[in-house]
Amino acid sequence: MSWSWTLALTAALGAASALAEEPLRGTGDLGIVVERAAGAVTIVETTGISTLGRVEGLGDLSHASAVFGRDGRHAYIFGRDGGLSKVDLLGRRLEARIVQAGNAIGGAISDDGRVVAVSNYEPGGVRLFDAATLAPLAEIPATYADDGRRSKVVGLVDNPDGFAFTLYDAGEIWTARLDPANGAPRVRRFSAIGKLPYDGNVTPDGRYYLAGLFGEDGVALLDLWQPEAGVRRILAGYGKGEQPLPVYKMPHYEGWGAAGELLFLPAVGRHELLAVDRRTWEERARIPVHGQPVFAVARPDGREVWVNFAHPDNDVVQVVDVPSLAVTAELWPGKAVLHIEFTPRGEQAWVSARDDDKVVVYDTRSRSVLREIRADKPSGIFLTARANRIGS
Asked: How far apart, in whole angstroms, are the C-alpha atoms of residue 100 and residue 363?
């Protein structure tokens, strides 16, 4: 046995022993903070508002997102470099990592927790992997032209029937249903939904898939319970007669606010938040806000929606009161606010301020700062409560 191998074994046993001496704990109050410049995640817990460890070696996390396994122990992290990483939150270690494409944009996990799906820009399409081993299972190439061109895929989410996603280049929505018999996904295509669908999400009940359109005003809506009815256009021409502003950062539908009977959607190229009636899919109100909204995140009780903004107005968070449909508070967490995440019952809001290298944790009732956590260029914050939500 070589000296270096012995040293490595001793270090590994020491780390395992240290973890073994810690008391047993669950995963319900855990989460990760993405450190985008460092290619790392910090593991956090919300009960004591503290950090538990850090996992490095995750590649390019400049546009990273994450989903969780059913028991909340493992995070699956999707990197911009096509990396798919499986992180053990309790063991605080990288369990597996593959580079499955040249450029990836996000992913999802099936409702049974067995299949992880990744959406890709290069070479385009969706790839499916075994959640336990990250072994490849299938590929959906998203070919949309006779010459074999593949589309960039965005807005990939799970739903009770499988997955749904949009094809940015093709202007289509596809659904994929997993076939347990042979593992091959059954794909259904919905064409001509509008120009440049840039993101998408599914309502919390898993019924409606919405895709935002960058190439024109409007939103494409697909009823997943009645897909035979096809795609419906809603909010068509919501900016008609107005001069759109330059778009510095694309709004994210994956961070929309679903509060009771309303959805709160960022308006593309405008300093507005759109309130949409979920029963009629008509515009209920437009709420003037501080800048171009990026994320509109509803507090779990649906009483408030917290909004952050694109550059150059990205150092503020505004709080929208749902009953009055008005901005009632402004918070200034720091420079370059990128993400907002509520704890499962909404008593805390975790806000990342990238350029100040910190995460600010607020008491949502008093708006006071509970704690600041240091992190290296933090962006996405993902808590394990997402493991129990459709489309998260």
From this structure: 40
